[in-house]
C-alpha cells in the first residue's frame, strides 16, 4: 500500500523591514520513498517544510497530496496543520518541556486506547534506545536523546507525509546507523512521501533514493544522489556537497567531436581537459574536483587513459585519521586525498615533485 | 467571631475566582492568539472596571441589575426573585469587578508560550482545544495561579461593590470584609481586629500553600 | 420571620438596644443593616428587601414617599442628631473653657468632620462653625470623613486634634472615656432631623408597624435619649402618631 | 468637571505604579530567582493587603502612619509635617495596597524566562545586574506591562484607603475617585456620571495605547 | 602567548526520583589547543562542559585553569559563570531571542567602546557569512545561521577557555569547512584550551590534536585521534566511531610469540587471527572491524601477507554514492565497502562466492 505523491508549488518571501530578504520559489514532486532535501545553510529547506506542514502560509501556490489539496491560494484552501496528516521533526525539535519523553511520544496517539498508546510508545522508544529515559522531561535529556525522542514522536503517528529536518544531526555514528536502519525499515513498510533534510553525506548515502537540491530558495537540481551531489552544477551546492577543490578557469578551445574542451586555470598556467559544456572560448568558468578523485605519482606516468597529468610540488602533508591530505602546488593549489598506505608506499615528503592525475570526468562545472 | 460571614466570603471568593478562571481561559486565549487586529481595544475594556471607585461601580451595577433594569426584570421572571441583594447578584458583580485581575495575567502567560510548541502540537494532529488544554494551559500555569490568587484575594477583600449590590444582609450578602468594615465603623476595634486577624491568617495559609505548590508543580522550560 | 431594617450608622448602639427590648417584648427578631443613608436610598430605589428604613437625613424618606416607594403616612421623625466638639484625652486644651476657640487654637492642626457634601452631620458641623463665626478661620484645617464614623476615627486616632462628631458616637464605649467633649448648642445649626419610614415593598408590614410603634413608645424614647439623640416634638405634617 | 481631582489622581497613579515597578523588579527577581527556600511565605505576605477591605486597611495605615506612631513621628521630625492627610501619605498607602498587583505578574513573568538564556548571559561575562536589565527584564516585558497597568488602574480607582489616609482634602488628597464617590453619595448623579465618563474615557485611551504598543514591542521567543 | 592548561576532576550525579540515573566521574587535562570530546549520545559530554562553565555544580571535585581555581568542593570555591572567562557554545545555542544577530554577538563585548564593538561584530559575522543577517532576530534565521551566530558570539570574546558543544552540527560541508579553517586560525593565534564536542569524524580529522573519549560518564580513552577512534576499546565507542562490523567471538588459542591469537566467531565457524589481548582461551570477546578495511576477491588469493582469508557468499550489493556496500555471509554477516570501480572490475553479483581478506591489525578488541 503506498500513499500518493506529494506535489508542492510554492512562493514565499520574507522581508526584513521593507527589503525582501529571502524568497522561496519552488515546484517539487515527492513520490513515496525518501527524498533528500539538500542545500547550503539558508537555502530555504526549513521554510519549505514549514509551508508543507501548514506552519507558514505561502504567498501563493498549491500543495496537494494526491487528491487531497492541502493548500491552494487561488481556491482559497489552507488546511490547518492538524488536518494535513504531516508528521514533522523540527530542526529545533520543539519537545513539550512539561511532558516526559513518553508523554511527548504518545501525544500524537490520542485516538488509540491507553494500552495501545503505551505499547506503541515503549516499542519505539526502545528501538531508538531511549526507553530508559522514558520518564525524563526534555530538560533532563542529552541533546541526542532529545533528538531521538522528537523523531519517535513523529514516526509513531500514522502520517501521510513525513517531514524530517536534520533529524539525526546530534547523533553519533553508532546510534545514527541503527536509526537509519529503522528509518529504512519504516519507509519500506509504509512507502510514504518522506522529505528528509540533511547535510550529511553519510545519511544521503544510507537513505537517499532521490535528492532535491535547493539554493537561494530555488530548486537547482533533482535526481539520484550521485547525479546531484557528485556532479553539482552550482558553486554553493558544490561547496555544500564538500568538493574540496573549486577553481576558476578560462575556456581555451571546444572539441565538440570528443565531447571535451580545454581550459586554463586562472592562477598558474596549468591546462586541463574537461567535459564539454555550454561555454565559448574566453568564458570564465568554475571547476569542482573532489580531492579523492585525484591520483598522485612520483614518476611521470605513461600509457594512461587519464588525459590530465599536471606536474606540481607537495606543499604539505597532513595526516588525517583515515587518509592523508596533500596540498600540491601547480600554479593553483590542489587538495589531494591519499590513503596512508599509498603515502608510505610512495615515500612522499614535503617539497617533493609529483604528478597529479585527473580523469576528464572528475572535473565538474559549477555555476555561481 | 462572625463565622457565617467568613464562610460566605470564602464561598464567594472561591466561586468567583473559579468562574473567572473559566472565563479568562477562552477570553485570554482569544486576546493572546486571536486574529482580529483590534483585540487590544477589548483588552483595554476588560481593565476598565478597575478605574472606577468600587462603590461607584457598585452603584452603576445596582442600577444595571436592579429591579427596574431589563436584566433585573428578566432575572425576576426567570427565577422568581430579584438579582440584586442576593448571593447570585454578588457573584455577578464581583465577577465583573475582579475580571481584570484574572484576564491580565492569563493573557500575559499565554503570550509567553513558545509558538513553536503550539505548532508542534497542531502538527501532531491535536485540535486547537487539545492544544490549549494539554500544551498552552499547562505551560501558562504560573500565570493561571497568579490570576486565581489575585482574583481570590481581591474578591475576599472587596467591599464597595459588594456593599452596594448586596446590601449587607446578614447570612446572604454580608461578607467578612463588610463585617469588618461595620465593626470598624462602629469603632468596635476589638472585634474588627480579631476578624481581620482571622481573615489574614486564613489568607496567609491559603496563599502559602498555593505558592509552595506552584513552585513544585511547575518546572517546565524549553529544553536546554 | 425576621424584620429587615436598614439604619443609619449613627443608630448602631441605640438600635441594638431597642431591638433586644423589642424581641423580649414581642418575640419578633429584627435584623438590622447599618450603612450610609444615601446608599440605602439608592438600594431601596433598586429593590432592596428592607421593611423599614431609619435614615440619618429626613430628605431620603421624604423622597421615597414622594416616589411612591414608601407606605404613605408612615414617616416618623424618631430623633434629632446632636453634635459635639471632641478632643482626645491627652490634649492639653481646656475644652470646657475654650469651647469654640479650641478649634482656632494653633495646637489644633486638623479638624475632622463628616463630608458636608452628603453627610447630615457634616452639614450641621459646617453650619455650626459658620454660626460661631470661625468657619473662615478653620476651613483649611478641615479633613473630611466619608461619614461621621470616619471623622470620629480621624480624631480618635489622634491624627486630627479635634473633631465635630455625633453625640451618639461620643457616648459610644469606644470614645466615651477617651476624650473630652463639648456639646454644640442645638440652635447653632439647622436641626438634624432623622426619620424612619416603612417601605412599600415590605412583606411584613404588620410586624413593621408594631416595631415602629415600639420605637415611638416612651420607653424607646428614653433609650434613644440615653444614646445622645434628642427627641423631636412630633408634628402631624411629618406623619407622627395617629 | 473636577480637573484638579483628575490631575491629582493621574499624578498619584503614575507615581505609584512607577515606584511599584521599581520595587517589584528587585523584589520580584528575588522571589523568582532567590536561594532561600521559604520565599513563598514572603510571596504570600505580599498579597495580604488585598484581602482586607480597603477602608479597614486604610484605618490600620492611618494608625501605623499617624501622628502617634513611630513612623509618623519620624516623618514629622524629618519633614516638619505629618504623613497622613498629605499627598506623600497617599502615595505610601497606595504603594502598599497596590503592591500585589505589581509583584505577582512580575514574578510570574520572571519565572517564565528560559534559565538557559540567563546562563548564556552569565557565561558571556555579564554581571547579574546586566543580565537582569538586558535579558530578564526585556523578556519579561509583557508581565511588566501587566504589572504597570494593573497597579495604575487600581490606584486610579482606589478610594477606601485614600479616603482614610488622605482625609479628602481638595487639591491635596481628593482624588477623582473620591470626587465621584462624593457626587454619587450626594445623589448628584449628573456630575458623578460625567466624571466617571471622563475617567473611563481617559483610562480607555491610556490602556489602549499601552496594549497596542505592548503587542508591537514584544515579539521575542526562543528561536524556532 | 599561551594560556595555562585546564584541569578538571569532577563528580556529578543525576537522579530521577530516588534512583541515580547518571553519574559523571572524570579527571581530564585540557592543554592549550583543540581537544575533541567524543562519546556516544548520553555519555555526559554536555554535563562536563556545564560543570566547567559553572552552570552545573559538581557534587565534588576541582576545576582549575592554571593557578586560577574555578571550583573546589573542599575549599568551598565556586566561581560564578561570569567570572570564569569561559566562552561556551551551547548545544541548544541559547541565542537571546529579543536581540538581533549583531546584538547577540556584541553582548559579550561590554568592556569595549561602541565603535570597537561594532567593528569586531561585523568582522566575525562576515567571516562566518552571516553579516547580511546581522539585523535579524534569531527567530528569523535558519538553523545553520543561528549556529554560526552562536559560535561568533562565543569566539568574539576573549575567553581563557573555549567550550564548544557540537558547534557545527547544522552546517553543510562548505560552510563547515570555511568555519573549521577559521577555528584553526583562531586556535593557532591564541592557543587556549578548547574543548570541542563533536560526533563528526570530519571535524575530528580537521581539528583534533587530542581526543578524550567519554562513555557512561567516564573517560575511556585519551590520545591522538587515530589511536582513540581507530582502535577503540569500548563497544559503544566503536559504535560511536562508526565501526560497521561488531562481532562476538571466542578465544581459541594465544600465540604469545607472534603477538596474535586465534578466535572463532560465535555465529558460523569462521576463525580469525587477531592481535594478542588480555584474554584466556574460552573467553568471549568482541571485535570491531571497519567495512572499509576488508578486501574482497573472486578467486582465492595466494602469497598474501594478510592472514585472514574467509570464504563467503555475497548476500546483497547496495550502491551508495561513493562506494558500494556488500553484505557477505561467512556464517556471520560482514559489511564490506568497495569502490564502484572495484565492484565493476570484479563483476560482483549477488549470490556470488567470494573471499574476504582481513589484516590481523584491522581487527580491534572492544570491551562492553
Ligand atoms: N521569519 C523570517 N523573517 C525573515 N527571514 C527569514 C525568516 N525565516 C527565515 N528567514 C530567512 O530565510 C532563509 C531560509 O531559511 P531556512 O530556515 O528555510 O533555511 P534552511 O535551508 O533551513 O537553512 P539551514 O540549513 O541553515 O537550517 C534564511 O536566510 C533565513 O535567514
Ligand atoms: N537534569 C538532569 N536530570 C537527570 N538526568 C540528566 C539531566 N541532565 C542530563 N541527564 C542525563 O545525563 C546523561 C548525560 O547527558 P549529557 O547531556 O551530558 O550527554 P551528552 O554526552 O552531551 O549527549 P549528546 O551527545 O546526546 O548531547 C544523559 O543520559 C541524560 O539523560
Ligand atoms: Mg533549516
Ligand atoms: Mg550533549
Model description:
The complex is a heteropentamer, with two copies of chain A (368 residues), two copies of chain B (224 residues) and one copy of chain C (242 residues). Chain A is α+β, with helices and mostly antiparallel strands. Helix content of chain A is 23%, strand content 36%. Chain A folds into two domains: 6-234, 3-Layer(aba) Sandwich (Rossmann fold); 245-366, OB fold (Dihydrolipoamide Acetyltransferase, E2P) (Beta Barrel), CATH 2.40.50.100. Chain A has helices spanning 45-53, 101-106, 114-127, 143-155, 173-190, 201-207, 225-230, 235-241, 340-345; strands at 6-16, 19-30, 33-38, 60-65, 68-72, 77-78, 86-89, 161-165, 193-197, 210-215, 218-223, 245-255, 260-265, 271-275, 284-289, 295-297, 308-319, 324-330, 332-338, 353-358, 364-366. In chain A, a hairpin with a 4-residue loop joins β17 (308-319) and β18. The longest helix of chain A is centred in the middle third of the chain and has 18 residues, at 173-190. Chain B is an all-alpha fold and 224 residues long. Chain B has one domain (3-33, 40-214): MetI-like fold. Residues 217-224 of chain B have low confidence and may be disordered. Helices cover 39% and strands 22% of the residues of chain C. In chain C, α1 (12-26) packs antiparallel against α12 (218-226). Chain C has helices at residues 12-26, 37-45, 59-66, 95-98, 101-104, 120-132, 135-138, 148-156, 167-170, 173-176, 205-216, 218-226; strands at 3-8, 30-35, 52-55, 76-81, 83-88, 111-114, 142-145, 162-166, 179-183, 192-198. By secondary structure, chain C is α/β, with parallel strands linked by helices. A five-stranded mixed sheet of chain C has the order 2-1-3-10-4, sandwiched between helices. In chain C, strands 7-6-8-5-9 form a five-stranded mixed sheet. The two termini of chain C are 27 Å apart. Chains in contact: A-B, A-D, A-E, B-C, B-D, B-E, C-D, D-E. The A-D interface holds A 46, 90-92, 94 and D 222-224. One adenosine-5'-triphosphate sits between chains E (14, 16, 21-22, 39, 41-47, 91) and A (133, 136, 140-145, 170).
- Architecture of chain B in CATH? Orthogonal Bundle
Under CATH, the homologous superfamily of the largest domain in chain A reads P-loop containing nucleotide triphosphate hydrolases
Query: Terminal Cα separation of chain A, in Å?
Result: 43 Å
Mean pLDDT of chain A: 85
Q: Which word captures the global form of chain A?
A: globular
Report the structural category of chain B.
mainly alpha
Give the count of structural domains of chain B.
1
CATH architecture of the largest domain in chain A: 3-Layer(aba) Sandwich
Total domain units of chain A: 2
Distance between the termini of chain B: 53 Å
What is the N-to-C order of secondary-structure elements of chain B (H for helix, E for strand)?
HHHHHHHHHHH
Amino acid at each position: 500500500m503506498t500513499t500518493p505523491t506529494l506535489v508542492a508549488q510554492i512562493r514565499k518571501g520574507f522581508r526584513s523591514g521593507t527589503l525582501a530578504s529571502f524568497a522561496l520559489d519552488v515546484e517539487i514532486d515527492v513520490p513515496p520513498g525518501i527524498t533528500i532535501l539538500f542545500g547550503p545553510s539558508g537555502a530555504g529547506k526549513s521554510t519549505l517544510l514549514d509551508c508543507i506542514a501548514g506552519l507558514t502560509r505561502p504567498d501563493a501556490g498549491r500543495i496537494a497530496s494526491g487528491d487531497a489539496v492541502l493548500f491552494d491560494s487561488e481556491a482559497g484552501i489552507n488546511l490547518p496543520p492538524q488536518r494535513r496528516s504531516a508528521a514533522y521533526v523540527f530542526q529545533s525539535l520543539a519537545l513539550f518541556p512539561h511532558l516526559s519523553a513518553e508523554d511527548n511520544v504518545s501525544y500524537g496517539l490520542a485516538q488509540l486506547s491507553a494500552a495501545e498508546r503505551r505499547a506503541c510508545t515503549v516499542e519505539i522508544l526502545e528501538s531508538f534506545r531511549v526507553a530508559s529515559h522514558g520518564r525524563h522531561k526534555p530538560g533532563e535529556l542529552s541533546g541526542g536523546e532529545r533528538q531521538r525522542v522528537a523523531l519517535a514522536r513523529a514516526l509513531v503517528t500514522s502520517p501521510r507525509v513525513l517531514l524530517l529536518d536534520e533529524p539525526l544531526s546530534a547523533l553519533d555514528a553508532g546510534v545514527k546507523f541503527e536509526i537509519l536502519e529503522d528509518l529504512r525499515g519504516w519507509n519500506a513498510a509504509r512507502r510514504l512521501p518522506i522529505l528528509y533534510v540533511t547535510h550529511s553525506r553519510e545519511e544521503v548515502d544510507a537513505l537517499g533514493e532521490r535528492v532535491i537540491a535547493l539554493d537561494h530558495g530555488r530548486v537547482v537540481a533533482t535526481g539520484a544522489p550521485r547525479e546531484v551531489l557528485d556532479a553539482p552544477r552550482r558553486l554553493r551546492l558544490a561547496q555544500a556537497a564538500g568538493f574540496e577543490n573549486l577553481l576558476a578557469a578560462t575556456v581555451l578551445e571546444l572539441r565538440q567531436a570528443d565531447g571535451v574542451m580545454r581550459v586554463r586555470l586562472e592562477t598558474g598556467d596549468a591546462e586541463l581537459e574537461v567535459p564539454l559544456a555550454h561555454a565559448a572560448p574566453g568564458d570564465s568558468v568554475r571547476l569542482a574536483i573532489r580531492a579523492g578523485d585525484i591520483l598522485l605519482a612520483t614518476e611521470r606516468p605513461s600509457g594512461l587513459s587519464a588525459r590530465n597529468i599536471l606536474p606540481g610540488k607537495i606543499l604539505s602533508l597532513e595526516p588525517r585519521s583515515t587518509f592523508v591530505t596533500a596540498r600540491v602546488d601547480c600554479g593553483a593549489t590542489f587538495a589531494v586525498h591519499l590513503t596512508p598506505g599509498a603515502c608510505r608506499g610512495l615515500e612522499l615528503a614535503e617539497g617533493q615533485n609529483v604528478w597529479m592525475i585527473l580523469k576528464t570526468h572528475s572535473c565538474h562545472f559549477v555555476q555561481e | 467571631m462572625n463565622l457565617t460571614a467568613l464562610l460566605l466570603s470564602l464561598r464567594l471568593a472561591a466561586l468567583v475566582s473559579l468562574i473567572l478562571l473559566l472565563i479568562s481561559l477562552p477570553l485570554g486565549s482569544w486576546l493572546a492568539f486571536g486574529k482580529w487586529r483590534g483585540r487590544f481595544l477589548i483588552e483595554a475594556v476588560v481593565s476598565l472596571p478597575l478605574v472606577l471607585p468600587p462603590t461607584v461601580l457598585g452603584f452603576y451595577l445596582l442600577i444595571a441589575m436592579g429591579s427596574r433594569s431589563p436584566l433585573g426584570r428578566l432575572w425576576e421572571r426567570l427565577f422568581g426573585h430579584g438579582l440584586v441583594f442576593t448571593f447570585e447578584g454578588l457573584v455577578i458583580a464581583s465577577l465583573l469587578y475582579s475580571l481584570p485581575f484574572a484576564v491580565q495575567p492569563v493573557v500575559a502567560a499565554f503570550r509567553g508560550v513558545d509558538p513553536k510548541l503550539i505548532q508542534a502540537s497542531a502538527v501532531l494532529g491535536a485540535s486547537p482545544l487539545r492544544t490549549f488544554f494539554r500544551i498552552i494551559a499547562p505551560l501558562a500555569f504560573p500565570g493561571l495561579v497568579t490570576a486565581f490568587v489575585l482574583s481570590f484575594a481581591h474578591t475576599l477583600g472587596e467591599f464597595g461593590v459588594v456593599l452596594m449590590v448586596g446590601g449587607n444582609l446578614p447570612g446572604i450578602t454580608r461578607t467578612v470584609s463588610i463585617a469588618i468594615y461595620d465593626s470598624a465603623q462602629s469603632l468596635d476595634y476589638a472585634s474588627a481586629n480579631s476578624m481581620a486577624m482571622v481573615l489574614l491568617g486564613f489568607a496567609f495559609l491559603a496563599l502559602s500553600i498555593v505558592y509552595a505548590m506552584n513552585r513544585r508543580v511547575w518546572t517546565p522550560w524549553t529544553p536546554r | 420571620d425576621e424584620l429587615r431594617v436598614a439604619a443609619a450608622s449613627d443608630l448602631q448602639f441605640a438600635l441594638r438596644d431597642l431591638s433586644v427590648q423589642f424581641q423580649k417584648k414581642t418575640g419578633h427578631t429584627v435584623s438590622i443593616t447599618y450603612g450610609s443613608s444615601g446608599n440605602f436610598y439608592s438600594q431601596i430605589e433598586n429593590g432592596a428587601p428592607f421593611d423599614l428604613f431609619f435614615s440619618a437625613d429626613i430628605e431620603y424618606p421624604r423622597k421615597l414617599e414622594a416616589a411612591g416607594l414608601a407606605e404613605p403616612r408612615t414617616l416618623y421623625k424618631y430623633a434629632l442628631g446632636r453634635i459635639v466638639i471632641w478632643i482626645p484625652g491627652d490634649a492639653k486644651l481646656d475644652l470646657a473653657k475654650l469651647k469654640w476657640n479650641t478649634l482656632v487654637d494653633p495646637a489644633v492642626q486638623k479638624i475632622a468632620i463628616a463630608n458636608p457634601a452628603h453627610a447630615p452631620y457634616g452639614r450641621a458641623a459646617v453650619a455650626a462653625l459658620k454660626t460661631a463665626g470661625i468657619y473662615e478661620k478653620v476651613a483649611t484645617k478641615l479633613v473630611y470623613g466619608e461619614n461621621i464614623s470616619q471623622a470620629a476615627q480621624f480624631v480618635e486616632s489622634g491624627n486630627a486634634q479635634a473633631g465635630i462628631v455625633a453625640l451618639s458616637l461620643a457616648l459610644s464605649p469606644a470614645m466615651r472615656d477617651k476624650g473630652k467633649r463639648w456639646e454644640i448648642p442645638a440652635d447653632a445649626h439647622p436641626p438634624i432631623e432623622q426619620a424612619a419610614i416603612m417601605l412599600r415593598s415590605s412583606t411584613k408590614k404588620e410586624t413593621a408597624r408594631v416595631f415602629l410603634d415600639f420605637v415611638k413608645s416612651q420607653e424607646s424614647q428614653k433609650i434613644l435619649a440615653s444614646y445622645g439623640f434628642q427627641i423631636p416634638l412630633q408634628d402631624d405634617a411629618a406623619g407622627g402618631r395617629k
